[in-house]
Amino acid sequence: MARKKGEPECCFDCIPCSEGEISNTTDSMECTSCPEDFWSSLQRDHCVLKKTEFLSYHEPLGICLTTTSVLGTFICIVVLGIFIHHHSTPIVRANNSELSFLLLVSLKLCFLCSLLFIGRPRLWTCQLRHAAFGISFVLCVSCILVKTMVVLAVFRASKPGGESSLKWFGAVQQRGTVLFLTSIQAAICTVWLVAASPMPHKNTQYHSDKIVYECAVGSTVGFAVLLGYIGLLAVLSFLFAFLAKNLPDSFNEAKLITFSMLIFCAVWVAFIPAYISSPGKYADAVEVFAILASSFGLLVALFGPKCYIILLRPERNTKKAIMSRGTK
User: Are 249 and 223 in contact (CB under 8 A)?
Assistant: First the structure.
């Protein structure tokens, strides 16, 4: 009941309660606010549970991203099987087979970690998703960086007086470099989780009648350092590969790495503004899309040409063919 000013007490208007408030008694003089997780019905006479929103496995967007992630994982397994089956062939041996196997495993982890961004956010998924994403991608980019450095070292060793450069890039040194670079990211993730761990968060700022479940990053600085470290390694890989791209064709992997890192950097540069401007579940969808797009870019650019030669052009998978490319 809303009394009319200047009129007798019996003169009043019947007005509905505001959004988020109800009145379920006759001749009520005031409205009652609904609890935090509830919202007023259309008739404003009772409270109803707010709708919840998150990137779900049951909606079309979530199904599409999940299917793409599983498909990418399956392709990685197939490519890994091809490389293991043809491990003794020249094209696999010439392109550092051990690092190639490790790179395929890390790419598979990159595809799988995107699944942690789908579904209702929980404490363990919020804490694990960015740690798994950061470590998987650093492992992947570290393998590419070491492969590029080996390409440069091999070419330098082919020149007079350059034999000593290879001693710094033996199998043990390669594994140690990858492990060291990945352990730095693991330390960043550990500090981030201990100091300001990501937590599930009920966000009601986007929609007053909905609860948007999301993972609060905890520390924006921690998230920025995690992404910045991946970006640093990616830029270094691109620079080294760019320096090696004009080497003889027998070292053509540098060209593949240059192209793959261009795709990788372009995806993640575009990710930052898109992530900042995307609300709620769409921020998670943008991050999953960036993970999948960059992973597919690396997989296709680095392993597509090799699988083509192994499966469809076996006559080019010989030591003579590989060594003659530079002089052809």
Answer: no
Task: From residue 20, give the alpha-carbon distance in Å to each of 15, 24, 204, 206, 209.
Answer: 15, 13, 12, 15, 8
Q: What distances in angstroms separate CA 275 from CA 220, 267, 269, 282, 298, one per listed residue?
A: 13, 12, 10, 8, 21
Q: Where are the beta strands (DSSP E) in 170-320?
A: 199-203, 210-216
The encoded tokens of residue 73 equal 């994982």
Alpha-carbon separation of residue 157 from 91, 242, 318, 322, 327 (angstroms): 20, 19, 22, 18, 19
- 210 in helix, strand or coil? strand
Q: How is 17-43 classified by DSSP, letter by letter?
A: PPTTEE--STT-SS-EEPPTTEEE-TT
Tokens of 84: 């293991």
**CA angle, 70 as apex, 306 and 62 as ends, to 5°?**
135
Q: Quick one: tokens of 169?
A: 């890039």
Residuewise pLDDT in 10s, the chain (328 residues): 777 777 777 788 888 888 888 888 877 888 888 888 888 888 888 888 888 888 889 999 999 999 999 999 999 999 999 999 988 888 888 777 788 899 999 999 999 999 999 988 999 999 899 899 999 999 999 999 998 888 777 777 666 655 565 666 777 888 899 999 999 999 999 999 998 888 988 887 777 778 888 888 888 898 899 999 999 999 999 888 888 766 655 445 778 888 888 999 899 889 888 888 887 788 889 999 999 999 999 999 999 988 988 898 888 877 777 666 444 4
Q: Could you give the C-alpha distances from 263 to 153, 208, 234, 283, 296, in angstroms and in order?
A: 25, 39, 11, 21, 10
E strand or H helix that includes residue 281 = helix 281-312
State the sign of the Cα–Cα–Cα–Cα dihedral 72, 73, 74, 80.
Answer: positive
Rg (CA), the chain: 28
pTM of the model as a whole = 0.84
